[in-house]
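Progress narrative, Year 2. Work on Stringent starvation protein B from Skermanella aerolata advanced from sequence curation to structure prediction during this period.
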Amino acid sequence: MPTEYLRYDKMVENALRGVVREALRQAGERGLPGNHHFYLTFRTHDPDVHIPDYLRGQYPSEMTIVLQYQFYGLEVDEEKFGVTLSFNNMHERLVVPFAAITTFADPSVNFALQFQPLGAQDGPSSVEEIEAEVTEEAAQHAAKLGSPKPAEEGKTGQVVTLDAFRKK
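Result:
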């Protein structure tokens, strides 16, 4: 199966995770206006998810949290968010990377996003990873064709055909 060079599906997912990031950032800075509230489902077994062990035991694969009335210390950065919620009258801090989120919804405005898991088994997940993969494949292909010969003195340029780099 040929490798896809432009993984638009992954790029769109990354962009939509940015929508979640910005919604959480605004909620952290200004609170939730009107009837807005968020349902966030995330994979609890992701290695960068930090939740208490008893919650991981109760929710070994996925967990849904609701940010509506009682949430505290919502902090958002480029890779993750952290929030303190109450479980059985105990405040617990959760830290969840955006890559672990599987669903984001704001039912007050009938808005929802569903995400595919990001990870090595799915191929590259960021633009940088995609570019690195394409660069490596191009280098391997060029090595198979042999290194180009240096330009002869007196020549001002050389026409290169791109057909050699296209997959057949």
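Confidence is low (pLDDT under 50) at residues 120-126, 147-158. Residues 8-117 form a domain with the SH3 type barrels. fold (CATH 2.30.30.220).
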